[in-house]
Amino acid sequence: MNLKNLLIASLFLFVFLISTYIIACRSDSSAKSTTSDPTAAKPITGADQTEKYIAYLRGKRIGLVANPTSIIGKQAIADSLLALGIKIQKVFGPEHGFRGNASNGAKVQDEVDAKTGLPIISLYGKTAKPTKEHLADIDLMIFDIQDVGCRFYTNINTLEYVMEACAENNKELLILDRPNPNGYFIDGPILEDSLRSGIGRHRIPITHGLTIGEFAQFLNGEGYLANKIKCQLKIIKVANYTHDTPYELPVKPSPNLNTPQSILLYPSLCLFEGTIISQGRGTQMPFTVLGAPALKGKYSFSFRPVSIPGMSETPLHQNNDCYGLDLRQYDTNQLRQTKQINLKWLMELYKAYPEKEKFFDFSQSKQMGNFDKLAGTTKLKKQIIAGWSEADIRKSWEPGLSQYKQTRKKYLLYP
Q: Could you give the CA distance from residue 347 to residue 351 in angstroms, rounded to a whole number?
């Protein structure tokens, strides 16, 4: 090759390399431009979208249904709204109270909030439903409470009572919606009518797959409010959210759901509250461990429940070593893959328990509810005792579960 041809070839090579470098830089720049904001695709709660509702609140007397999960940014919603000049007449607090300092199942008294001076009406004490007198000086009610998507989690009961009170007194209800961390699946037996209680009021499965806003539409649409009345709703939707979007709660929804894993395990482990097996109440790891003293020798892992004020004052098996399963390292992605509550732990521990007649004995377990009410059916306990397979147990949930899934679709706000 002569010198001229060599120079030409070198020039072409140089141009090729420069072009490749420029294209690579542009691609890298483009990629960075779409990923530089790590929060861009994250869900934005209804409460955090203040631009969509603050103007609507101005000049109105507000009633606020809230608890510690009710935040704008990192500040309590009541504190934030007051700072923005919104007139809050009073706050209504659900189970665990407005500031979240009451234990599971503990009755909560009316009080005055020490920080804001606002009157707090307890909806988990002598009153479950706001009265006509409570709403007399209120123009608009706001509901902003994080739910975890389970039939036996009582926030949906509070929602129902508030909707009824609003409908009966011609008050509009503004719902600031939040993601459902367990909204990616719908599973469990449909509640039997004979088992209606404070931990299950309607014919829905254990995990209902709805946000609070969607559940409100469901209650309206299915005629579940008293006398089939309808509540006037205004819903501020969650942005950047689908039911399959993973969501880690910024605030624990209740004292004993204190980790992201406990929230995801809760639909499966809450059934144990109707058994003699401790779910870790009385420890700093509730709903991530399972055990009982009688399982000593069958499991090496152990924990000891103790009294924890504001969390679990009198836990099951208090001051006794409990032996069983440590689920803190369990990969909760398995739940996302199966889209099912885990029945295997329940079946395993029943099989391992030496005194089987005590396993489902409510008088022995001293829990908030009995197993049948938690399960929503009288069949599951009998099926486990009889040694049914998991597949056969799940078949018995049909056709009710499939019918509910179809009904649910009518009320969805998110894909």
A: 6
232 lies in a domain?
Answer: yes
Whether residue 277 sits in one domain with residue 203: no
Task: Print the domain residue range for 328.
Answer: 260-377
Least confident segment among 3-7, 220-224, 339-343: 3-7
CA dihedral 29, 34, 39, 43 (to 10 degrees): -170
Q: What mean pLDDT is reported for the chain?
A: 89
Burial of 17 (0-12, 13-18, 19+ CB in 10 A): exposed
Q: Which of 167, 160, 143 is nearest to 198 (CA)?
A: 160
* Alpha carbon distance 370, 359 (integer Å): 11
pLDDT at 18: 42
Confidence (pTM): 0.87
Strand pairing category for 119-122 and 233-236: unpaired
Q: How far is CA 181 from CA 188, 314, 402, 414, in A?
A: 17, 28, 21, 14
**Are residues 221 and 276 located together in one domain of the fold?**
no
